[in-house]
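Ticket 4471: requesting a sanity check on a complex prediction with adenosine-5'-diphosphate. Repro inputs:
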Amino acid sequence: MNIHEYQAKQLFRSYGIPAPDGKPAASPQEAERAARELGGEGWVVKAQVHAGGRGKAGGVKLTKAVEEVAGLSRALLGKRLVTQQTDSVGLPVHKLLVEKTYPIKRELYLSLLVDRGSERMVFIASAAGGMDIETVAHEAPEKIISILIHPAAGLQANQCRQIAYALGLKGQQIKALTGIMQGMYNLFLDKDASQIEINPLIETEDGDLLALDAKINFDDNAVAAHPDILALRDAEQEDAKENKAQQYGLNYITLDGTIGCMVNGAGLAMATMDLVKLKGGKPANFLDVGGGTNVEKVCEAFKLILSDRNVKAVLVNIFGGIVQCDIIASGILAAIKQVHVAVPVVVRLEGTNAEQGRALLNNTGLNLYAADDLTHAAEQVVALAEAAA
Ligand code: ADP
Ligand code: MG
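Returned structure tokens:
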């Protein structure tokens, strides 16, 4: 789960990580009032969306004239922001963060995440932070350092110093960085984060360190244990279909192909997508309807798949181990009639009562094909999708 920058900065402050003075705003008037209350000589208006790359996409506006804040805000609010990290539709801007601007001497990069390879948390840092960090990672990876944290020992002071030296920090700044790293580490563990990123962490002209940007992701499997974090959720920033799927206990992920997939079991779903690709098609989604599936779930699954306009054909691949194939087949028939499925549907049933199941699906007068094996089914659905496109 993601949260907004302004929420992440509030969490930062409660963990002793310094962030700019700022206030969230939902209207141009509120934004201008916020700027006047903050005082100072310059302000930045930042679109709050669950994606980075806002600066390059026009979602971060700086001004030295407080009377311009309302206009800059009006230009962002109610629009969608498309950045390098969003799809082509972008994300809606309903909230802004108004901050004081700070004189930047250097932009640094600091993040904390889990390195799956070594099964440890890892700090990643670079003196070449800012909006071009992706280019740095590509073209000058030696400018990025990483430090693994031993799970039993925890974050050590010498590791903080090591990063401070790599970032070219001196004197009091080393102590400040240690405080920031310790805060990130504690926040990460307390709240079951999966990533905390500060880019840029700035060094001001006065030598202070400040988290100018803040990005926190939380582990979806742990967030239920943190009601305070769950309360920060902004569903409008999330994929509506994926949210709907969650309500029905379906594991659904949107992809950009043309073949809708409905499968029971995550492993089988992965294998089905592989086979579709092998046969020259592109899956429109990953969908695991789970083990003990029923007509209601199959109906909801069809609705989800068909709400994607790119879908030209659907492949249903069910292995009847616990559930019987004839029961599944009648469920599919009921769902197709109820949801008015117009695109061709190829069904592969295998397992208990597979013969009876296939018999039910044949000669229905519907745009329905009962395949005798999975390879055939994949070939057939790819051909049908191509014919429809
Ligand atoms: P994103 O990573 O989405 O592009 P950032 O919050 O990193 O958004 O902002 C982009 C850039 O805007 C920063 O690298 C920084 O140069 C500038 N910026 C952002 N906030 C401030 C601020 N409070 N004062 C001065 N400059 C800022
Ligand atoms: Mg940033």
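Notes from triage: The pocket of magnesium ion (ligand 2) is lined by residues 52, 199, 213 (CB under 6 Å). Leaving this open until the requester confirms.
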